[in-house]
Amino acid sequence: MVDQAVGTGAGERGGRQWLRVLVVGLLLCVASVVVTFATANTNLVPTVILLGSFLVPVTFAAYAFERADQVVTAQRIFAAFVYGGVLGVLGASVLEAAFLKQPSVATYLGVGLIEEAVKLAALWLLAWRLPRYSMRDGIVLGAAVGLGFAALESAGYAFNALFTMEGLSLQNLVETEVLRGLLTPLGHGLWTAILGGVLFRTAAEGAGCGCRGRWSAGTWWWRGCTRCGTPPGRSRCC
Fold first, then answer.
1. Exposed/middle/buried for 11, CB within 10 Å: 0-12, 13-18, 19+?
2. What whole-number distance in Å separates Cα of residue 120 and Cα of residue 125?
3. Domain residues of the chain, as ranges?
4. Closest Cα partner for 76 from 22, 68, 13?
């Protein structure tokens, strides 16, 4: 079978490092927010933004790493998280500015399509010439790319939320980061992980898959609907 590539490496990593990352990161994040509120020290704002934006993505990346095989090393996950995230936000910003001008339902769907397309392109570049392909490896690397994108995008949203007509608002910043932290796993990580698994499965089989186009279409449809608040209709895939 295609996914027999998942060997003993996944079990050797073991432990619950992701839980430690989450707990320690959450404590540091709360402490930075409390100290910033108490002292009104604007020098701490970048610390609050970085901790709040990267806490959930890094936790999920650590969780995925513990369940990857020997092909997906720490170096590859780090590269997917950083390079994939940067390439994704840059590509999405350029394409959205060029093609999406007026806010509408079509615009929200277009945003979802562009973001998933650039993340998938970044994943394809990072996966070039891997020694082996399996669905699980695609899911892990796809999630890393999507969560890297989410971390950088959340930092941008938090930075923008800081500025209001009345001046700097730390409350708006924190509320934005909490909301983004809750939506990140589904809003970015899940969709790119699905596409990564399908892409790697197709590469492993050495043949095209009729479902891949449907998965891609379904992904950007859901992403667009979650942005504009439109409930998507029920559909079936093969």
1. exposed
2. 9
3. 2-228
4. 68
- Per-residue pLDDT 10s for the chain (238 aa) are 444 444 444 444 556 888 999 999 999 999 999 999 999 898 999 999 999 999 999 998 888 777 767 788 888 888 899 988 898 888 888 877 777 677 667 776 777 788 788 888 888 888 887 888 888 888 889 989 999 999 999 999 999 999 988 888 899 999 999 998 888 788 788 888 888 998 888 888 764 443 444 444 444 444 444 444 443 444 333 3
Q: How many CA atoms lie within 13 A of 14 on its CB side?
A: 3
Q: Could you tell me the CA-to-CA distances from 19 to 61, 62, 180, 205 in Å, in that order?
A: 11, 9, 19, 35
Nearest-angstrom CA–CA distance, 195 and 134: 13
